[in-house]
Amino acid sequence: MSEDLPRVLAGRYRLLSPLGEGGTSTVRRAWDESLDRAVAIRDVVPPAWMPAESRELWLRRIPLEMRPMTRVKSHSGIVAVHDVVEEDGLPWIVMDLVEGPSLARVIETEGRLDEVRVAEIGLQVITALAWMSETYGILHQDVRPSNILFEDGRVMLTGFWISAVVRGVIDCSFEHLTDVLPYLAPERILSQRPSTSADLWAMGVTLYEAVEGRRPFEEESTMGTLAAVVFRPPAPTRYADRLRPVIEGLLRKDPAERLTVAQATALLSQVATEAPLDGPSEVATGAPPDGPSQMTAETPPDRPSEAATEAPAGRPRRLRLGRPFSRGAGRRPGWP
């Protein structure tokens, strides 16, 4: 579309300025003239290589999957979706405007992070994932550092809507999943129906990347990365110490053996509080705990569902979540 801004969408959203751009969308700052507030608006443009039939199906599916997200109650750990409008033949997603950077941007600019801070981030993200799964039966299906945002000391998860985009790309070709593939669970690559265990796998990849400053599965070619995710163990950690049990537990190939929410949060809590780690127990064996936090339910069919740089081996930067991240040059909102 033309970038002759400003422009008003759906008679109420005035587009102001671009915030970021990805392979399938551009995020823009906008002003909601009906409610007198700033918002972020994301268009979703099908990739040029996608066959016409798939493009049409994709564009129809995104609004259908997104509208239930507008009815989700507010949660401090989730970027709210306020509206879905269609204009120029494209869906436009209206969301909270988050002014802080993404975890991907922080890793890129600051290097690997301290284990305690990574554990704090992991706890908040997994809590948000569990809440969405248990309350609404909604999976994320695209957990990765670029979808984890920071603002005013909060960790916020965005991108729940993107599952339709990811599935559309998977339906066409893995070759176009360059940014997403390193975070896809083996069962998703093998075309098995996803469950919340796949989101926990992606969280394991994210924790690894945050503490190591690199991804556990990343080869020179797409097919090499795909094979690594499905068949090979993750690259050995060099800096993970207390986080190693939870990372290894979340990156088990078999989803039935993967850590559950209760097990992962128990381990992360011990690291975040710098408490002594428990000895060998059911957490280490992957035995499921009692209670609803197992997050094993599959998504009902009618429900919606950045490259890091190698850090030096010096002391990692500790990022306190009790205050906002700095917003210097190059750290504008971490979209996409």
Automatic annotation (TrEMBL):
Region (Disordered): 275-336
Domain spans labelled Protein kinase: 13-268
Listed SUPFAM superfamilies: Protein kinase-like (PK-like) (SSF56112)
Claim: Metal-binding is one of the keywords in the record: no
Documented EC number(s): 2.7.11.1
Keyword annotations: ATP-binding, Kinase, Nucleotide-binding, Serine/threonine-protein kinase, Transferase
Cross-referenced Pfam families: Pkinase
Gene3D superfamilies hit by this protein: Phosphorylase Kinase, domain 1, Transferase(Phosphotransferase) domain 1
Single GO molecular function: protein serine/threonine kinase activity
Source species, domain of life: Bacteria
Designated name of the protein: non-specific serine/threonine protein kinase
Source species: Streptosporangium becharense
